[in-house]
Request: fold
Amino acid sequence: MIKVQNLYKKFGDNLVLNDISATIRQGEVVSIIGPSGSGKSTFLRCLNLLEIPTSGTILINDADLTARGANINKSRQQIGMVFQHFHLFPHLTVLENLTYAPVKVKGLKPAEANDKALLLLKRVGLSDKAAAYPSSLSGGQKQRVAIARALAMEPDLLLFDEPTSALDPEMVKEVLDVMKDLAKSGMTMVVVTHEMGFAREVADRVIFLDHGSLVEEGTPADFFANPKTERARGFLEKVL
Amino acid sequence: MNLDFSQIVPYIPFMLKGIWTTLQFVFVAIILGSILGTVLALFKIGSVKSLRWFADGYTSIFRGTPLILQLMIIYYSIPQLTGYDINPFMSAVLAFGLNSSAYISEIIRAGIQAVDKGQMEAAQALGISYSDMMKDIILPQALKNILPALMNEFITLTKESAIVSTIGYLDLMRRAQVVGSDLFRNFEPLLFVGFIYWCMVMGLTVIGRMFERRLKLSD
Reply:
C-alpha cells in the first residue's frame, strides 16, 4: 500500500533522512521508534508531504505522491494524520471539527456528515461532547476527537505523530485504547511513538531509525528480545 | 470664557447632517480598506514573489507619505491626468481606502502569522484546499487576535476623516468651519462636532467589544 524508495530529506545542509526504503502493507500497524532527532517524525510527515522529500519516491496505492503535478490534496484525503499537539480547530465545535472536511472536501451532505461524526464520537467515547469547543476538553479527549476527525475522512491509512507525548500520564491509556481498537479493526497505521508498550503489543512491525537511517526493522517480538544492531541495543537499554 | 451655545442652535440640523456624510464615506472606505488589506496580506504571506514585492511596495508608498498629500493628489491630479472629474466623495473613499488597506494588510499579516502553524498542517493533512483553509480555518482565528488592532485602525480612520474638509467635502469638520465663519464664532461649533466625533468613536468601541465577546465564545 505504501512504498517508500530511497527517500532523502535535507534541511539546508543537514541530512535528516538518509536513503530510507520501506514498505507498509494494507492492514499493517507499523511503529517507528528511535531516539529524538533520528528523523522519525520527518519520515512520517513525508508520507503526506507535510515535508517535501529532497529526493526519492513515495507510492501510495501505486500513485506516486512525489511525481510532478500529482494532486497532493487528493492523496491527502486518503491519509489521515493525528498530531502530537492535536491541532483541533479551536473556533469550531467538536462536531464541526469532524464534519468540516468531509463536507468541504469530499462533498458529503451536512446531515450525512453529522450522522457519521456522531457515530465516530460514540466510537471514541465522546458522544456528549459534540457541541463543546476544544478548549473545554482535556488533552486525552482532544486527541480522541483528533483521531475521530481523521477517521471522518474515511482514510485508507492513518499516521500518528507521537500521539501521546503531549498528554498527562493518566490520559495516555484512553488514547492508546482507541488506537488499539482501530488496529484491531484492520486500519493501516503508521505510528511514531515513545510508547514501547504500544509498539510491543499492537504493532505488527517495528522500524528503528537512528541519525536519519533505517537501522533495523522486524516484528516487535524479535526486535525487543534480540535487537541485531548495536545502536538498537543501546537505544532499548535506555528506554526499557 | 464667553461660550454661547445658544447661537449655534439654528445650525445644529446642518451640522448633524455631517454625521451621515462622514459615516457614509468612512464606511465605504473601511470596507474597501478591509478587502484590499486582506488581499495584500495574502499576497505578503503567499509564495508568489512578484505579488509579495507588489504588496510590500504598495505598503511602503501608502505608509510612507502623508494621507493629506495622497488625498490632494487623488482629488486634483485625476481630473488633470485622465479628464475624469472625480468628486470629493470618490476621492475621499479612494484615498482613505487605499491608505488604510496598507495598514490593515500589516495587521492581518501579523494575525495570520500568529496562528499556530499546526492549524495549517492539520488543514493540509485533511486535504482542505488553500483557499478554504484561509477562509474558514486561518482567517477566523487571525481575526480574533487582531480585532483590537483593527478597531484601532477603524477609529483612527473615522477621526482622520476630518482631513477631507480640505477638499471641500461637506463632512462634520467642514460643516463646523462653515458655521464658524457664518457666526464669527468658532469654538462652539468645533466643540459641538468634537463631541459628535467622540460619540461616533465610542459607538465603534462598543461594536468592537460586542464582536470580541462573540469571538470569545469558543474560549
Observations:
- DSSP finds nine helices and ten strands in chain A.
- The mean pLDDT of chain A is 93.
- The first strand of chain A starts at residue 2 and ends at 11.
- Residues 13 and 103 of chain A are 42 Å apart (CA to CA).
